[in-house]
Amino acid sequence: MYKLVHYSIPFELTFLYAEEIAKNSRSGMSGMVTVQDQIQADWDNRELIQVITTSIMRIAHFLNNFDMSARSRLAQLNEKLTTLERKIEYLEARVSGEDLNRTQPTEA
Amino acid sequence: MDFNVAIDEALKNVNQLERLGKRLTDEQPFIEAFPASVTYTVNLDTNFEDREAFVTGFSKYLEEATVQSDLNLLLEEGEKHAVMLYTWRCISKAIPSVKDDSDPRRLEIYEKTIQVMEREIGKLIEFYYFFDRAKDKFCQEITNLCHPQKIKDFISETHLVTLGQLINMFAVLDQLKDIKASISNDFTHYKRIDSLLGKQGMNEDRNMLYQQLTMFLAGRRVIMDSLFTKLSTIENYEEVLAEIVNTAARRFEMKCYMTPKEKHMLLKVVAFGLFLIDGPANKSRGDKKGPSSRLLKMNDRSLSIQRFDRLFKTLPVVPLYGDMHINVYLCPRDQRFKSYELDPGKWTCVNKDVVKVSTTQFNIVNKLQIMRQEYERITAELMNINGSYKNQYNISEGEGVTQNTSAPQFIEVFELAKRGIQFLCECSATLMELYVWKLSNPRDKRELEVQLKNNLLNEETEGPIEEKDFDIAHYERATKYNYTPEEKSAFVEVISIIKSTAALMKRMEVVFSEGIARCVHLEVQDFVQRRLRDLLRFSVKRKKQIIRTVVTAIRETCADWINNKEDPNDPAIRGEKDPKTGHKVRIKNRACGLSSTQLYMVRTMVESLISNKAANKKTMKKEMDTQHYTELDRFYTRSYFYKDLLNFGTVLSDCSDLPQFWYREFYLQLEDKIQFPIEMSMPWILTSHILEMGDPSMMEYILFPLDLYNDSANYALSVFKKQFLYDEIEAEVNLCFDQFVYNLSDNIFNYFRQKACILFLDKKFKDDVSNLKIRIPNCQSNRYETILQQRHVQLLGRSVDLNRLIRQRLAIAMHKSIEVAITKFETKDLTGIIELQSLIGIAKLTYQMLSEYVTLDSFDDIFRQANDSVKSPCGKITMHIYDELNNDFLPNFCYNSSTNRFVRTTMAFSEAVHRESHSTLKGVPAYYTYVPKQVSKGYDHIHEVYSMFVGQPHFAAIIDLLGYQGVSLIIEGLLENVRNKLTYTLLNYVLTLKEGMPPELNRPRFEYGPIGVFEFYHTKLESIFRYSELTTNVFQTIREIGNFVLFTMIIEQVMSEEEIMDLLQASPFLGIMPRPVVKDEQNEEVRAMKVEEKVKKMEEQYSSLVLTQIEKTGTPEQVDIARDSMQLAKERLCKNLSILSYVLDKLRSYLSNEGWIGDNPPNGVMYMDECKEFHRLWSAMQLFIAMSPLMSGAGSQNSNEFHKGRRVSAPSKGGKLTKEKIQFSPGMEIENCPPLMFKTEMFGEGLHWAALTIITILGQQYRFHSLDFSYHLLRVFDEKPKDGISCGISIKKLVDRIRHIQLMNNRILSVLNKYNSSDGSVTSIVPLEEVKYFPPPIRNIQ
Fold first, then answer.
1. CA of B923, closest CA in chain A: separation in Å?
2. Which positions in chain A touch B24 (Cβ < 8 Å)?
3. Contact criterion met (CB < 8 Å) for B397 and A6
4. What is the mean pLDDT of residues B744-752?
5. CA quadruple B268, B271, B276, B279: dihedral positive or negative?
6. Whole-angstrom Cα distance, residue A107 to residue B255?
7. What are the percentages of helix, strand and coil residues in chain A, rounded to 5?
């Protein structure tokens, strides 16, 4: 799968972006925060949201994969254990009942 | 808890997670729908909540957005009401009825009823209010749009579609309400009880509400009719509706839809929209306005009936909601269009021929071919993308993508996503349409009844066929009997195509969503920032104000500038041309799409520029150049798909979910039933179809129809939100899954058993049979491995280990097959052991094949469990063989040395053997014995051959099945039996007969000639010959002993063959080299040297094979094992252990009584003429044996006829030997009847073997040889060959017989002598050699 591009600017600041512009504007430039600035800020916010949702999606996919592979392994393990348990039961039955003909060469 | 993790950290962690995830692989093949334990869906659709933010757009469209958001909310609410109506089950039926007014509990019942029903009735009231509101809102909107100023104005397509969706909603609610009669029944019941209780009293409002509600619920088509009435009050409303209808039709024709729901909705909008335009035909003829159809009027102008007619023909039946359908092509007739009433010729789709034409259209088998090809192509491309996008998209950080670098990767991803979704939509839609088509055209009832009756007649039924009335439900006719097998197969395949494509796409959801987001962003920004520049320049230059405003608005609404604001130096803004070097616009690269509001605004504004309709008839189109127009148009068509694809996850699941195949609320209502059995349920019909067909290509699809249950259950919980539906689904799945596993494991076992049976069948037999042109079928291979490897099948949220379930069943089947083999053997005599051997061989082969895929207990374990030999060394097989030997083989079989076989005697002297009856084997499925049928016949033929005799193959089988332990047990047991016979039965007879022997019997002289000799013996031994029990009990006992000795001998022979084979195979490991071949050399010494050389070379070469090597390299346990096995092998070589010697020694110990030996002879050497020893008795009997078959005359006939009366015919098995068998009980008194005549086939050679064994053991063989009566007769005859008749017997023939007997005796004695020479370990009563020293006679010297 492809890797996500890492952004250098920390995202927490984008929320304050508009306010900063407002500060800047008060210091030098004109007027209030325009709709344009708001829309730009909106783009950034939405991108952040997208990144987070994609990451959560990836986590969800990973969980599903992990779930399936774990189940598969556990099932195999279960199978081995069951076989062994059966074998033990069988051997116990064989050993407890049979005390004749021990000296004969045992060949099935 | 505070988790302050920076975003960067979090993203790094997610990457780590993915790297980790790569190493976790799931090894099983992927044959089910996407297994999602966790689902995560993102819905970024804001429903225009954020419209206030985008004031940059035209305010007109903002208002439209407001209206749209309200309408969307209405649609959501309507969906909820539709759910409520669809899942309504009749409540009043479940309530206990009050029998009469005097019932004391009636008040309680009434109050409880009210309490229970109040909530549901509340929902109905809410529905009624909702309808009022919705109707008002809709009509208000139409009124707004029909305003004389606005009517010519452009309405955005999205808005039209939303209005169309509302029409659809009304129609659906209308149909749902009409169909569910139980709703109005329930309400009536509630009202009645409420009034009976009389609590509320005279609440005027409530009464009026109830009355209105009754009318509302009871009437048919109330919703649509009232809507029509209200609409017709609006002037020119039909123009708007015509636009809606035309838009929907256009979209349908151009395939502008992304989900099947949308597709069907469009068609329904057309149908019901036309109804609202046209209106229902009034019944009353006295209509003042006169019957006129608006539709007909508009036919030439804005609407074309022909177009819609054609449309209805292409898709005649459309799913309405759940399992309900609507016959769109019959709409004009059913909905009573005015235009249809007035001019039926216009609506050709109503004709019945449409039905026939459409059956070809719904031929899923043909469509499947195309689907398969497309599926393969899409899968290939999906895999391609999955593989190639391992690296990140080639973007450098922070910079934008310049104009020259195209981003084909994103566009490819986008295109593939779009194509995939459209493909899925098409497949799902085809499936649903087929399903509802079948529902609307169920199988003809009468034809079905006829066919079912024929089926019953064709099946092999026992007894008279009942003429029963077939109670076939409507639903059954629509589902179970309505699909041909090819259609079912095609259905299954389409489902699997849909599910697997969806699973593949879901796995790549991350790639897709990011790719789509980037692509959308790129394309939109490309359009807005670059392509619109031209138009902007054009509009500024040419002073087209409107266009300029619109374009600026577009740019302001959704542009994402790279410097966070528009480039002020862009020459296009001022209307100037670009400089010669070109103006570069760099676009920021973001991975997120537009907001839904932004998209809507942009699209609507672009649409306004390109639309054909505008206020004042002044379209923008005329004012632009064609190139601008094409740009705008291209963007507009392409951007239609953005909305759905940005919600990739949701639209994917919409297209691939197939929940409606299980729901049957409509039919339950129709037939007034609580539920239908699973045979009528589509998912189960499809699954059992695959299992029955056993078609290998379909076997891997078997889990996909079960996924339909998953979809339906999901719907029940999340959409319908009704627990009882989920409970019903769960119950059905429990039942179905049990049957599924049961049938599947049966199929699997059958398949492997079949393979084993065919493989195991003797090759030569197969060749011979094929020469006779009888075909033994070759087993068709099947793909069960993928199913057997499934370890986590997701079913109703639970994970099922299919491998484990099947494994359990297979183990049971394995066990049962061996049990059945043993039981079968127990119903047969000893000859059945060959069949037992083959059955167990087949079982072993089946086991080997199965254990490649499934781990089972070891075969030996299973065998021992089935044989009951886990705790005791003696299993069922051993027991049965012992029984058979004891009761059947020893008494009843005759040995023949020329064939080395035992054959059953014609006259049995023992009780019939009781065996297990065949009834225990009834009802056993064929795969426990032989499958398929021809193979079964083959095996029966082979085994029949073995059933006529007992010989070497049978003994080999005994050894194979019992092993050393079993054989030793049997021989011990039989020895005990023989001991009894020897020491009691036979001894008594011997003692009795001895008294009948003459005290002295010397050999007559040669001069008497053979006749004289014979007559002499005959007279002397008369009493023996006349002994009645001679031929019956005496010989019988002797025969049994003889059979036992023979049995031991042959068993030993066969065992030694096997041992030799074992030794040969072991010899390389013991260091024993074969003799090397050396060229002929004259010189003996040179030759010996060469041989030695070669032997040394070979020993060096193979020295690493010798077991003793392990002592150098192995662990202590391995060394011990090696030493033990070498000792075992060497003992076999050296010790020369023999069973027969052991047996003979034991027998010797039983023969200790004096009766056998006689006392010490007075002359110190031996008895000459006295008949005190056993061999004398045997000589008499031998003479009797020799002469008896030759006796002719009345005597023999009488005796035979006397015994004839006792004939009991026993049923014979093979059908070939039908000689009657005479059965005698051992203690029967037959002293007064003449003795039975001896025949060879009564006793076989066992007789002679036994006697000679006794004689040899006692050391009397030489005496026997010289003193025997018959031998004497033979010698006399050789001297004087004089034939004659004496006592009715021809001497020559007698002598011939005696000669034969002598040859046989010699042979027997030579074998016995070999084994008799034991090493004297057992106490011998008679020493082997006894030398008595007699001093020479003392001579009197005179």
1. 30
2. 65-66, 69-70
3. yes
4. 92
5. negative
6. 76
7. 70, 0, 30
Contact of A75 with chain B, judged by CB distance below 8 Å, is answered with: yes
Interface ipTM above 0.90: no
Phi, psi at residue B794, to the nearest 5°?
-90, 115
Interface of B with A in 465-494 (CB under 8 A): none
The verdict on pTM exceeding 0.95 is no
Closest C-alpha among B53, B561, B1219, B931 to residue A40? B561
Closest CA to B639 of B553, B555, B516, B532: B516
Question: Between B565, B590, B963, which is nearest A108 by CB?
Answer: B963
**SS3 (DSSP) at B27:** coil
Question: Whole-angstrom Cα distance, residue B397 to residue B410?
Answer: 17
In angstroms and rounded to an integer, the radius of gyration of the C-alpha atoms of chain A is 34
Tell me if chain A has a CB within 8 Å of the CB of B389: yes
Q: Count Cα atoms within 13 angstroms, Cβ side, for B946.
A: 22
Peptide bond into B344 cis (omega under 30): no
In angstroms, the Cα distances linking B153 to B62, B148, B240, B548 are: 16, 9, 11, 19
Yes or no, beta carbons of A58 and B855 under 8 Å apart = no
CB pairs under 8 A between A and B: 185
- Considering only the beta carbons, identify the residue of B40, B390, B870 that sits closest to A57: B40
SS (H, E, C) B1197-1261: HHHHHHHHCCCCCCCCCCCCCCCCCCCCCCCCCCCCCCCCCCCHHHHCCHHHHHHHHHHHHCCCH
Q: How far apart are CA B713 and CA B796, in angstroms?
A: 7
Q: What token pair was written down for B414?
A: 């986008």
**B76-to-B224, B595, B608, B780, B864 alpha-carbon distances in Å:** 19, 21, 28, 54, 67
B106 forms bridges with which residues in the sheet? Answer: none
Mutate to test the interface with A, among B18, B20, B802 (most CBs of A within 10 A): B18
Indicate yes or no: CB of A47 within 8 angstroms of CB of B592.
yes
Distance from the Cα of residue B313 to its chain's centroid: 42
Nearest CA among B588, B590, B587, B596 for reference residue B516: B590
Backbone angles phi, psi at B1055, to 5 degrees: -65, -40
Residues 6+ apart with CB under 8 A from B436: B317, B318, B319, B325
In this prediction, residue B1207 carries a pLDDT of 32
Q: At B324, is the secondary structure helix, strand, or coil?
A: strand
Chain A positions touching B964 (Cβ under 8 A) are: 104-105, 107
Q: CB-CB: which of A68, A94, A106 is closest to B792? A: A68
In tens, the pLDDT along B68-110 reads 999 999 999 999 999 999 999 888 888 877 777 667 788 888 8
pLDDT tens by residue, B1298-1339: 898 899 999 988 888 887 765 444 444 455 566 777 788 888
A54:B870 CB<8 A = no
Interface residue B1334 vs chain A (CB under 8 A): no
Question: Distance between CA atoms of B240 and B232, rounded to whole angstroms?
Answer: 12
Q: Are strands B1285-1286 and B798-800 parallel, antiparallel or unpaired?
A: unpaired
> Distance between CA B865 and CA B861 in Å, rounded?
6
The amino acid at residue B1221 is K
The pLDDT mean for chain B works out to: 81
Contact B556 A11 (CB under 8 A): no
What is the length of chain B?
A: 1342
Digit-coded pLDDT (tens) for B1034-1054: 888 888 899 999 999 999 889
- pLDDT at residue B396 tops 70: no
Extract the tokens encoding B1306: 């010699």
Chain A residues lying within 8 Å of B40, measured CB to CB: 56-57, 60
What pLDDT is stored for residue B355 in this prediction? 64
